């Protein structure tokens, strides 16, 4: 048994993440009600009252946001939203990209040209530029299904890229002797693709999937910094009519440009939480790769 | 082969421009209708106006060379001329720095893999990569603001204003180059010519710089376009936080209302990326004899 430090650390970090995501909301120090606390009064000390955001203290370990909500609770409650978004996008992307990549494995044909053109077109502009252009459109703003729409769009934007990765992997497999053997004994092409290519690609798919989760976490953060939130609720009489309802970590980063000077802890801790998630999935991917290569 | 590549890139470039135009001109008249207890948003823009609007724009640009006007009724072309050079200075400086420093850092990482200095080498590189890119930019700006108050961080009009943003934006993409270079060198070290050089008793430094690096550069060059993408998305965050009034900042403020300006700026950024793609291809073509023989 070879020592695989990365995998061990990755699994431990993932378990901690899972613990806080699912058990976290029930822990005693996590406040799920978010009682109003924009102004706090103190009985002792020279300062009689203070306005939110409150800095980190023994009451709120990570401080509070501008509405006086405990930041630690927000981060723990937001973990589920954040993880669901990452999982949904990545899963949808792979669901379509893998079959397309396999079908295009010959390097010719209509699916191949579609995939490679789509990939090259979208690699001309950074994903975040595209996301900003798209997600500020009324099509995305004036809908009750914003979350779903954003998930599908991000997945669609990335299908070409992921598809091409699997096209190349699958293409390199198609030169192996056992594929020639399968062709010789007259297996159907679909069987060769899904019966012979796919199982060999399995571990690679898992590794890419996990690494991609980290990239999606990064995207949430970037979108948050640019005030593009993933969940909106529409209040026709409210001001503004569109209000952010999600708890995901990107939302806490929305005002970081102002917060960075006056309340550094508001952008700092969600960013650190994102770092933790990205680091977890990166190291888990590295560990899996190492383990798979050792076999 | 080269001509075919150029032709294909040109075709893709045109398609991408078309995609951007179609996205920007997507119908956007929307209202929120309230029924009993239920809120129904609806988009009232019709698809009948959609295609004609987009084609009118394309015709206007192609036939008359008129790129349209901004919100404040100035010409888009003037606005682009005003903001884009500022950004281009940052892009060129930092791209140069990213590649040079990144390769050097990669070599450092490679040569210090087995000493205690690896903590500063590949360990530091991996750790840096786990942070979100915006985190780095925010942290650097925060440090500059609080610990170096004598530096004017928010300057953007003086001639030297591009230096600081270039340096800040270099840090994160640089680690990618370092990682790529280091990995390429590791794959290279198993090759026989490296073993022979070691057997002949050449110094480590000589082998790395004279033999292995040249073969690894091709890998770095093939990653130039994705580096440019990384740099651009970092630049957007940087310009927003530093209030550096460059093209990325202007693009962010133009969304979602100034359609014509959005297209023009997005097109400029796309041109930069496609130019990088061609440069990357040419560099590989001329630097690496193996590429030419394929």
Explain how this protein is built:
The complex is a heterodimer of chains A (295) and B (294). In chain A, 65% of the residues lie in helices and 4% in strands. Chain A is built from eleven helices and four strands. The model of chain A has no long low-confidence stretch (mean pLDDT 81). Chain B has helices at 2-24, 47-64, 76-111, 122-130, 133-147, 163-188, 192-200, 204-222, 224-242, 247-254, 259-287, 289-293, and strands at 30-35, 38-43. Chain B has 294 residues and is mostly helical. Chain B has a two-stranded antiparallel sheet with strand order 1-2. The model of chain B has no long low-confidence stretch (mean pLDDT 84). Chains A and B meet through helix 3, helix 4, helix 5, helix 8 and helix 10 of A and helix 1, strand 1, strand 2, helix 5 and helix 9 of B.
Write out the strand line-up for the largest beta sheet of chain A, numbering strands in chain order.
1-2
Instruction: Please work out how many helical segments of chain A DSSP would assign.
Output: 11
Percentage of residues in helical conformation of chain A:
55-70%
Number of helices of chain B: 12
Strand share of the residues of chain A? under 5%
